[in-house]
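Illustration 12: Phosphate transport system permease protein PstA.
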Amino acid sequence: MATAPAPAPVRPAAPAHIPLTSGHLPRWAPWALLVGSLAVFGAIYGVLGAAAGGEFSIAGWLILSVIAYLVLIYTISRIVEGARRAFDRFVTGIVSSAFAIAMVPLVSVGWTVVSNGIARFDATFFSSSMRGIVGEGGGAVHAIWGTLLITLTAAIISVPIGLMTAIYLIEYGQEKRLARAITFLVDVMTGIPSIVAGLFAYALFALIFGPGVRMGFAGAVALSVLMIPVVVRSSEEMLRLVPNELREASYALGVPKWLTIVKVVLPTSIAGITTGVMLAIARVIGETAPLLITAGFTDAMNQNLFDGRMQTLPVYIYSQYAYKGIPPEAYVDRAWAAALTLILIVMALNLIARIVAKVFAPKTGR
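Figure caption equivalent — predicted structure in token form:
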């Protein structure tokens, strides 16, 4: 008995490609919406400003443009891509806007310092002091040397104390009463005002050398009081991130604890520790109040930390701006140039820290 052949399966027709229902916006769509929002509200604010005879409000233009962009991107993405993708784009827009807002003061400060400080950024500024200078001319070489010497001395005092304190807290002081007391004191020291550190250092050296003492080493001690808690906290977190398996593997090979710390724990966390030290230096290198009390200010070069007053860049900026002479523009230009120099020193120190961290970081490749 013959059987009829099975009917061939009917293939469904391929759906037509409809862009608005394809489930994905083109890559240029968010940028187009952002540019469109900026253009529309820029035109509106321009017309309103011209009609009212006022200035163009950059802040209002940006805020309303961003709000309009967020509403548009969420609405269009919800229609085309669905609720989940729309909410993802909405949150991405909020995060990007927050990043842009955070960058505004940074870029503004950088631009202001560079544009105002470049006028006196010359060879004379880096080769002359203010000795015998009234009015135009002069430089800040004595303040640059003072900042470098005092900050370096403060780092030499603070880094060993802070690092060894962090090692004790992580490696030896677990659940001990002394460790809890040290942690509490470090937390308290982290929040003390800088002027308190300056008064402490001044009182300490006044007891030894008498009232009215001013010297660079006293300023270094004041800065070290501010640096130590930052070094302790950052080093403590970096040491805590080292896996215990590395310590246990070293102990299993018969390596004593102190050698394990030196050869395993510290090399593993050296990159983070170096970054923490640089953060501590950046925290104190721009302090003015403690150095004004302890190191004072002078117009001449002084490279001896233990004899006489010593000028630093923060105090130099303050004195040039607060005690302007004739013409006042010369003093203001020197203050801005010193501020630019201070920022460049901090950038150079951070660059050196990154190089050191990269060189001494543990090698993971074979």
